[in-house]
Design a protein that fits this description.
Structural class of chain A: alpha+beta
Distance between the termini of chain B: 75 Å
Largest sheet of chain B: none
Number of strands of chain A: 3
Order of helices and strands of chain B: HHE
Number of domains of chain B: 1
Radius of gyration of chain B: 27 Å
Number of helices of chain A: 3
Radius of gyration of chain A: 45 Å
Oligomer: heterodimer
Largest sheet of chain A: 3 strands, antiparallel
Distance between the termini of chain A: 144 Å
Largest interface: A-B, 53 and 48 residues
Shape of chain A: rod-shaped
Helix content of chain A: 55-70%
Shape of chain B: rod-shaped
Strand content of chain B: under 5%
Chain lengths: 188, 93
């Protein structure tokens, strides 16, 4: 078995029948046997040096046996290349997921601030009103739904306040008149 | 059991974040296997491409347009230039 062709710059023409990988397997014989697996095609896994004299790495190859010329055409990948690409993709995905989570958390915080805070303020003002202090009003800082609600509550409180003022004025007059009448009674 | 609006909004947010994390984790855990499968398919496709070239040379031999030795010499020059995906290359034995 002779290496007939490979990447430009690499040595060809040498016998490769007895070339072993780091585990002592005959690489090219395994590739040949692998190529006969199914319909003259097949895969083989072995260890191979990326560069001459380098560390042997896990490699996966796929081969085709071409009967008319009695040759095996093969190509392969280093598993570490796949792992490298997986690591890069994981980093990319982690960054994307982190950005999405940060964006979602920010939007949620904005919604909570925009809804909960005005509602808490409304509740606080209504508690003051409940304690018969009708002078409290809501600060309207936004024109959203809660801003409109606050505006309506302010209008309602103003109306209530005016109504109570009107109601309290005749009663005050009545009390004054009653007092003056009682004063006259006392002198008589 | 009654929840305040704040609790409901927070629950929704936490549920959404956990869902995104789960989907992200699932995607990441499947990624190595999927990429490996994808690369194996790529190897098959590359080999089938070369087989097409190989067959075209063989047909020239059958049609007596080329001698088998000449066809082989011409074909053996092709993989030298066929590098793909950075470190991918062909070898013929």
């Amino acid at each position: 078995m002779v290496l007939k062709a490979t990447l430009k710059g690499k040595k060809t023409g040498g016998r490769v029948t007895h070339v072993k990988d780091a585990n002592g397997r005959y690489v090219y014989q395994d590739i040949y046997n692998g190529s006969r697996e199914f319909a003259d095609r097949g895969g083989t896994q072995y260890q191979f040096q990326r560069v001459a004299g380098g560390v042997a790495e896990d490699k996966r190859s796929y081969s085709l046996y071409f009967k008319p010329w009695n040759i095996v055409v093969s190509t392969g990948i280093y598993i570490s290349d796949v792992h490298g690409k997986v690591a890069n993709n994981i980093i990319e995905m982690t960054i994307i997921v982190s950005l999405v989570i940060a964006g979602l958390a920010f939007i949620a915080w904005q919604i909570i601030t925009a809804v909960i805070s005005p509602m808490m303020r409304i509740q606080k003002v209504m508690a003051k009103v409940e304690a018969t202090d009708m002078t409290w009003r809501l600060n309207i800082s936004k024109d959203d739904e809660l801003g409109l609600l606050s505006k309506s509550i302010n209008s309602m409180l103003t109306e209530f306040h005016n109504l109570l003022t009107k109601l309290s004025s005749p009663s005050y007059d009545l009390i004054s008149a009653s007092d003056s009448l009682c004063g006259d009674c006392a002198t008589n | 059991m009654s929840f305040t609006l704040k609790q409901k909004v927070y629950s929704f947010v936490v549920f959404s974040l956990l869902s995104i994390l789960f989907i992200g984790y699932s995607g990441i855990s499947l990624l190595p296997e999927e990429m490996y499968k994808d690369r194996k398919i790529q190897l098959k496709v590359q080999i089938e491409t070369v087989k097409g070239i190989l067959k075209s040379y063989q047909q020239k031999v059958v049609r007596n347009e080329l001698m088998q030795e000449g066809a082989q010499t011409a074909f053996y020059l092709i993989p030298q230039e066929m590098q793909y995906s950075g470190s991918g290359y062909f070898f013929i034995s």
